[in-house]
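User: Could you go from structure to sequence for me? I need the amino acid at each position, not a summary. Structure tokens:
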């Protein structure tokens, strides 16, 4: 190494170097590196100023200058933290655009370029450890912050605060573990904050602790690719952004979250709608096309993944756990509850595996204000176990363990632990859905509009109605299992059409029925096709275009419930609990196991006159989580008499039934 002091340099008007050498100019804790192969002539004028690659230095600010053969990476600014201090090394080609300030281990950088430098952006590479440091970055052009094995704790603010409103790449280098922590008090919005678009990426690991508010916050969109991201504790949301969020790949684990796991808000007041390649998009949408996401939230009414717009899942593995109870919203004057996936708009789930578990009062697996479409290869498993939560006129909360007791509360003053609850229409075209609810009022799948099942495999075990729609409900394909322990298996508050598919519906005992329509409201159940087993029978007054049959005994008039009111119905045949049956329609057999308890009587139907056996041994393609086989191969068993069924068991007497 050869050191050239300023006093020597002043004797020359021009400094020149051999091509293999690098001129290092040290200003405090910042070193600027100028490779001779790029620097060319470096004028020294007026006896006070040296200019190297457009960066001017005055003698009063330069602490040392020396020449060595260190390789320089263009566009790179390296920041090394060490205990209570930091040092910075700046590549010569970006020196003119970078103005660093260091106070202890707190680094502030102003970036002045408004375009690419040598066809690339500037990269800030962070390494080292400090318990009292930070990075604050301003600018008007996109850049990359590369985490290369840094542990950064700021006891007085954000660990990384980026006020540059352009696109920022926050990248963890492969093979490195990086940990960022902010203070427990302050005005920062997050441990990591970016005013501009934030792309989280890299093949390394990033750990984040948000002690004041959010873990990661962008005032624009956030995208995630490849990164292993662990948000281990936050007071607010784990990840919070605006405009839209996109998860392409990587592994995200969020726990110890004080509010929502992932939340995306609308940036402005009006949605732009989905744009090509999301260019200038502001929708509040969340897009998940790959990766692994696991969120665990415990706060009252918290959401694991929440979008102000829509949620689209095409691939990936999502696990969402919520355990918080209900909350009273004093502004909206209504109860609110937790949810695994929550959208103020629509949801389209066409791929991936979603495992959604809610244990808090009133909690839901999926909640959408708009529509829900499930299709293709989506696999959805939902489990809710909390009781219903209700509020008094003053907003004080309590839980209810009996579904019937919910009738005395108006809609805004109660929240039931439903598996899937959608205010708009539900369309199930494919995929596999498994829903289990055990708490009071826990409907399995509920649409406040229409519900259409044209394909897929649906398995529901519910405390309340297994499948419910506020309007027309149509099943024309797919495999549907709907078991309600305290209400109807399938319940339409408009017309109900069974046109095709395989349907196995089980209700609680009378007056509930396997398949119900709102007869008391002037609607009707239409059986027009499909293969059907209904334990608990059918709604009275049904239109049976396809012949239905009572199992085990002939239909007889009188008794029961008719048309949703006492009297006038027909009873359906008997069945044996915990027994394997085989229903053969044409050349295809459906084998199914009956529950330990349920509705009074069994009704079956198929495109041709079916045969029925009980006590069989069955094998074949397993469906409905092991409750059935279709197509099935059976042996043994006893023949069950079936006779034409023309009536129904009715429904309950108005009200919630």
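Assistant: Here is the amino acid at each position, in order:
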């Amino acid at each position: 190494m050869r050191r050239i002091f300023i006093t020597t340099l002043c004797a020359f008007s021009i400094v020149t170097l051999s091509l293999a050498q690098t001129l290092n100019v040290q200003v405090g804790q910042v070193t600027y590196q100028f490779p001779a192969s790029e620097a060319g002539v470096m004028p020294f004028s007026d006896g006070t100023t040296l200019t190297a690659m457009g960066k001017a230095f005055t003698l009063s600010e330069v602490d040392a200058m020396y020449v060595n053969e260190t390789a320089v990476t263009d566009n790179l600014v390296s920041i090394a933290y060490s205990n209570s201090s930091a040092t910075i090394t700046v590549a010569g080609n970006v020196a003119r655009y970078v103005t660093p300030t260091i106070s202890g281990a707190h680094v502030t950088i102003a970036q002045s370029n408004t375009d690419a430098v040598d066809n690339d952006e500037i990269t800030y590479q962070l390494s080292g450890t400090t318990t009292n440091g930070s990075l604050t970055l301003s600018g008007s052009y996109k850049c990359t912050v590369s985490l290369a094995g840094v542990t950064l704790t700021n006891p007085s603010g954000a660990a990384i605060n980026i006020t540059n409103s352009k696109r920022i790449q926050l990248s963890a280098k492969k093979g490195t573990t990086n940990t960022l922590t902010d203070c427990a008090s302050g005005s920062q919005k997050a441990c990591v904050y970016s005013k501009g678009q934030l792309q989280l990426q890299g093949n390394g690991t990033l750990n984040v602790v948000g002690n004041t508010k959010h873990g990661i916050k962008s005032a624009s969109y956030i995208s995630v690719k490849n990164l292993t991201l662990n948000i281990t504790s936050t007071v607010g949301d784990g990840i919070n952004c605006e405009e839209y969020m996109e998860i392409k790949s990587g592994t995200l684990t969020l726990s110890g979250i004080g509010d929502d796991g992932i939340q995306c808000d609308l940036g402005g007041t009006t949605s732009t709608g989905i744009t090509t390649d999301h260019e200038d998009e502001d929708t509040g949408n969340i897009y998940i096309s790959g990766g692994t996401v696991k969120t665990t939230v415990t706060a009252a009414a918290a959401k694991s993944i929440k979008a102000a717009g829509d949620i689209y899942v095409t691939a990936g593995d999502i696990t969402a756990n919520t355990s918080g109870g209900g909350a009273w919203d004093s502004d909206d004057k209504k109860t609110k509850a937790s949810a695994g996936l929550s959208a103020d708009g629509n949801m389209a789930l066409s791929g991936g595996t979603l495992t959604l578990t809610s244990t808090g009062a009133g909690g839901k697996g999926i909640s959408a204000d708009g529509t829900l479409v499930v299709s293709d290869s989506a696999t959805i498993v939902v489990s809710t176990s909390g009781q219903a939560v209700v509020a008094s006129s003053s907003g004080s909360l309590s839980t209810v363990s009996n579904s019937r007791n919910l009738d005395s509360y108006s809609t805004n003053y109660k929240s039931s632990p439903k598996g899937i609850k959608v205010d708009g229409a539900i369309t199930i075209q494919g995929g596999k859905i498994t829903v289990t609810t055990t708490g009071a009022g826990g409907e399995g799948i509920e649409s406040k509009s229409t519900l259409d099942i044209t394909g897929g495999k649906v398995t529901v075990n519910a405390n309340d109605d297994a499948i419910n729609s506020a309007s027309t409900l149509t099943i024309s394909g797919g495999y549907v299992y709907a078991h309600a322990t305290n209400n109807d298996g399938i319940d339409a508050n408009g017309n109900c059409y069974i046109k095709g598919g395989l349907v196995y519906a089980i209700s609680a005992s009378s007056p509930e029925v396997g398949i119900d329509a709102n007869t008391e409201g002037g609607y009707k159940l239409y059986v027009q096709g499909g293969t059907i087993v209904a334990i608990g029978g059918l709604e009275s007054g049904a239109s049976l275009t396809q012949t239905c049959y009572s199992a085990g005994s002939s239909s007889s008039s009188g008794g029961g419930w008719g048309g949703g009111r006492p009297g006038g119905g027909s009873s359906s045949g008997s069945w044996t609990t915990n027994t394997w049956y085989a229903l053969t329609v044409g050349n295809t057999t459906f084998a199914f196991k009956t529950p330990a308890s349920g509705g009074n009587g069994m009704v079956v139907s198929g495109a041709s006159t079916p045969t029925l056996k009980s006590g069989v041994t069955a094998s074949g393609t397993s469906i409905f989580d092991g409750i059935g086989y279709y197509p099935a191969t059976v042996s043994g068993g006893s023949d069950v008499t079936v006779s034409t069924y023309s009536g129904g068991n009715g429904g309950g007497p108005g009200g919630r039934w």
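One structural detail worth keeping in mind: The longest strand covers residues 285-297.
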